[in-house]
Structures are given as structure tokens and as C-alpha cells.
Amino acid sequence: MAKIGFIGLGNMGLPMAQNLLKAGHGVQGFDLSKAQADALAASGGQAAASVKAAASGAEIVITMLPAGQHVRDVYLGAEGVLSSAGAGTLLIDCSTIDVASARDVAAAAETKGLAMLDAPVSGGVGGAQAGTLTFMVGGGDKAFARALPLLEKMGKTIVHAGGAGNGQAAKICNNMILGVSMIAVSEAFVLAEKLGLDAQKLFDISSKSSGQCWSMTTYCPVPGPVPGSPANRDYKAGFTAAMMLKDLKLAQDAAKAAGANTPLGADAVRIYSEFVESGEGPRDFSGVIRFVRGA
Ligand code: NAD
User: Fold this and answer.
1) Of 134, 2, 100, which Cα lies nearest the Cα of 60?
2) What is the CATH number of the domain that holds 290?
3) What distance in angstroms lies between residue 216's CA and the mean position of ligand 1's atoms?
4) How many angstroms separate the alpha carbon of residue 197 from the centre of ligand 1?
5) How many Cα atoms are found within 13 Å in the side-chain-facing hemisphere of 43?
6) Does one domain contain both 242 and 115?
7) Chain segment 106-131, per-residue pLDDT in tens
8) Cα–Cα nearest to 244, from 261, 223, 230
9) Which residues does 112 contact at the CB level (< 8 Å), separation at least 6?
10) Does 121 lie in the same domain as 256?
11) Catalytic residue among 3, 52, 171, 246
């Protein structure tokens, strides 16, 4: 069983680390919030007092942090992971961050002789708790093979997407589809309302026709047709509008850097920005239908 350093024990990181403990691994965890590290200790792990303490002596270091700057600080800082981890330690960043930061930090790790993977996830807090996350992994073949048995303790679908940064690329492309398609489905339901077409009827037809998509059939933004969707619980998240906005902005940054033309992605940023600025950031992203209806 491996000795794992886990840094970033928030909504996602804590249940992921707890699944590693359940699988019999040893986990030494650090979070800026002592309460989160204490919660890990209460589940049978060890609370570490710093990044350095979490990384020291670990065979594998996993991070689950808010954004690119946090990942740069935690890995590249004076007492960061790269200066604290021993030779042969495998590094896995599961945060959702910009592709450039993922590639920069992986390159810095390589100069120290350390293999690093970017392995962002989808599946949310529910998936983290249930151990059913999807991991999109960028990095070398050997590092992926080494990480796989561990990722399988936290997730159900694990896909090797290519070299460093490709996990992040897959994540932001997927979420750009999701953000845009949720707006498209919302616009269709609002138009149907105005045309006197019942929402259930539109669902019955479109969910079996060419308009069918995940935003329609799993996360339907109107209450009724899909009983489990956040629309039936006043858009309680789920996946917050603020997080969707973060991922859509990452996609736009990447599109600009790569010279890709993504006008619908750009419009989605504008629409979710206004929705979040109206105070709805903590609401589920499918609540954007309220903005579409009112706009
Ligand atoms: P969170 O804010 O709940 O957790 C992040 C944790 O990192 C916090 O506990 C914070 O104290 C800690 N942290 C920040 N800087 C630190 C540092 N320097 N050292 C140690 N700890 C530090 O966020 P979350 O919901 O767990 O999300 C984490 C990542 O996962 C984000 O990149 C997010 O985009 C991604 N993600 C989240 C979800 C979701 O549904 N919550 C789904 C998919 C992906």
C-alpha cells in the first residue's frame, strides 16, 4: 500500500483522500484550513502541518486545489512539492487549471527528474464521495500506468488523453460543450413556453430527436421531465454557475493562446458572467435558464 501526500482537502479533495484511506493506503494530508486536515485525521489519515510535511517521504503526491496560481505556488514555492518530494515520487494534480500552468509545472518537475500527471476530474462532489469520478489524464505512459491503480480507487472512468496538459485540454473542451449546450437547451425551453408548447412535450420529442444531449436528458433545466435534475430543487448545486464560468474562461484563454475560433464559447462566458454577477454564482449552472428567461 502506498504512502500518499494529499494537498488541498476541500469539497473534492477530502472525499477523494478518504477513498484512498478506505482502500488501505496511508494518507498524510495538508490544507490551509486546519479543520479540513483534522477531518482527514478523523477518517484515519494523518494531518500534515505544511506542503513540505505532506510531500516528504510520500511515494505519490496528489493535489486538488482551486486554480492555476495555487498549483504553481504549491509545486514551485520555496518549500513546495518539487523541493520537498524525494526521488521517484509521482506527482498528480487533479485540480482544474489552465493548460499553460499544467505544462509549466510538469516541465519544472521533469527538470527535477520527477514524473507529473495532470488529472482533472468530472463527476462533482457526489462522484468524489462515491469514488465514481472520471479522470482525464495528461502525461507520460509510465507515469499513467503507475497512477492507474490509485485513480481507480477514486474514479470509475480513467482516460489517458496524451502528453502533459492534455487532461486539462480535455476538461475545458468538454465543459465548453456543456456550458454552451445548457444555454441552447434553456433558450429552446423558453422559446417553447412563449410559443405555447408544453415543456414536457418538448422534452418527449427532443430527448428522442436530434436535439438530444446531456443538458436535456440528464440535467434538464426546467422542473418536471427529469426528476433528479437541479431544476427540481430550486437549482441547488450540483455544479455551480461560478465553477462553470471558471472553466469557460479557461477555455477562452486557451482558445486565444491557440488561435482557435470559439464564438459560442465566448458568448457563454458573457452569459454566465452576467448570471454570476446577478448573485447566482453558488446556484447550479442549469439555473442559467432563469437568466435566459429574464434577459
Ligand atoms: P474547494 O475550494 O472546496 O477546495 C480547495 C481546497 O484547497 C480548500 O480547502 C483550500 O483551503 C485548499 N487550498 C488552497 N490553497 C492551498 C494551499 N496553498 N495549500 C493547501 N491547501 C490549499 O474546491 P473544490 O470544489 O474541492 O475544487 C477543487 C478543484 O476541483 C478545483 O480546481 C475545481 O475547479 C475542481 N472541480 C470541482 C468540482 C466540484 O464539483 N466541486 C468538480 C470538478 C472539478
Assistant:
1) 2
2) 1.10.1040.10
3) 28
4) 42
5) 22
6) no
7) 999 999 999 999 999 998 888 999 99
8) 230
9) 82
10) no
11) 171
Q: Specify the DSSP class assigned to residue 92.
A: E
Determine the residue type at 100: A
* Pocket flag, ligand 1, residue 66 (CB < 6 Å): yes
C-alpha dihedral, 90 to 94 to 96 to 102, nearest 10°: 0
Tens of pLDDT, residues 68-114: 999 999 999 999 999 999 999 999 999 999 999 999 999 999 999 99
Structural domain of 178: 169-294
Cβ of 17 closer than 6 Å to ligand 1, yes or no, is no
What global pTM score does this model have?
Answer: 0.94
3 is catalytic: no
Structurally, the chain folds into a number of domains equal to 2
- In this structure, which amino acid lies at residue 281? G
Instruction: Return d(Cα 8, Cα 37) in angstroms, integer.
Output: 9
- Beta-sheet pairing, 133-138 with 121-122: antiparallel
